[in-house]
Known about the structure:
The complex is a heterodimer of chains A (about 260) and B (about 190). Chain A contains 10 helices and 2 strands; from the N terminus they run H-H-H-H-H-H-E-H-H-E-H-H. By secondary structure, chain A is mainly α. Chain A folds into 2 domains: about 5-40, no CATH class; about 90-110 and about 115-250. A two-stranded antiparallel sheet of chain A has the order 1-2. In chain A, helix 5 (about 80-110) packs across helix 7. Chain A is elongated, with a radius of gyration of 27 Å. Chain B has 10 helices and no strands.
Amino acid sequence: xxxxxEEQLVLYYYGEEEGRRPAEAHLQGCAECRRQLEGLxxxxxxxxxxxxxxxxxxxxxxxxxxxRAHLPERERPGLRPRLWQPRLWAxxxxxxxxxxxxxxxxxxxxxxxxxxxxxxxREQVRERVLLVAVGDHLDRSxxxxxxxxxxxxxxxxxxxxxxxxxxxxxxxxNRLYRQTAEQVGxxxxxxxxxxxxxxxxxxxxQPAQVNGAQMEQIRQRIEKQGILFxxxxxxxxxxxxxxxxxxxxxxxxxxxxxxxxx
Amino acid sequence: MDDAAAVAEAQAGHRDAFRLLVERHSRNxxxxxxxxxxxxxxxxxxxxxxxxxxxxxxxxxxxxxxxxTWLHRIAANCALDLLQRRKQEPQPSPAVAExxxxxxxxxRLPSPDAGPERRLLSGELRERIAxxxxxxxxMERTAFVLRHFEGRSIEDISQTLExxxxxxxxxxxxxxxxMRRSLEPMRAPR
Lengths: 262, 190
């Protein structure tokens, strides 16, 4: 008697129609194949889906808040879609390139003397703008983490709804910066942003009101990961690079002509 | 407003209709993303990227399948792309949970005739399963999750992953074989 193959047993287990009837007929008369099927079933039955992290009723609205700013403008019916798509992609690529440039400037720009650059290209201006954007993002993240670790308790609970809302906003921009860092192969920066993103997501999905013990857990997680310190280090590096770029762009001005004053 | 009407509105350029679809399907896509990637941050990325891709491709959506099925296919491909990207990044070798020498193999995995309590997965078994899933190739993991956790047919998997039915079947089969090999040491002797 020719026994059922392992593949046939797998298909049978999953209830696939292909070959089901002959397999059924064979199994009725073959103890060995029934034993094999039982073994397979006991293994696959034990493979249960991992427990799903909680996502509340408002999750869909949160997702919408995160993505809506990134949705391209849809054209109204009547225009040919292909007319605008290449332009959109080109614009997207240009933005991505500029962000890449901003990261690369921060990471690889040599520190030695350079001839003064008097005339700036439009790209250089954009790069400076993007450096500011990354720096601001890190500043805002840092501020959020600091506030959260020092949030005051009131009546045994802490209201972190404001911090959660800000964390949700930061997640989307963080993801963009992290993906860009990954694309240019800047693993160390991508890793810090990756850790920051996990922390932000974690904060965003806590209850709006947490008790003292829950608050302590959040603080401990932030401290254990050392994420605040890492964000400070990266943020400082970006700011230093930003100042250097400003000096380069305005060689005649003071040491920090365009620096952020906040 | 049902999905078909919302899609038609969204195709006509009404963002609020797309918003409805996002709000309606986010949790399901998160579930798929989490099962496929095994972590929360990656699952969130899958959710975001899936809806962005869906929005960009909305003009090409035709009601041959339901919006939900179409979106799940997009999400599965987003997760597959992410898994492939992650695989190219250097990863620390996964730590295998050490077996407790005082625990017999019978105690680690429920035997086929075990009662409901015994069938509850222990933390260790859960770790083993997570590790076994990590050891699958991105394609195998995708096919396995779609078949085993999501209950998708081989035909649907072949369409989602743009494989021939035979190749989809082989991918699921290879994944099951690998899972079996990884979990075999924990199986109770019959």
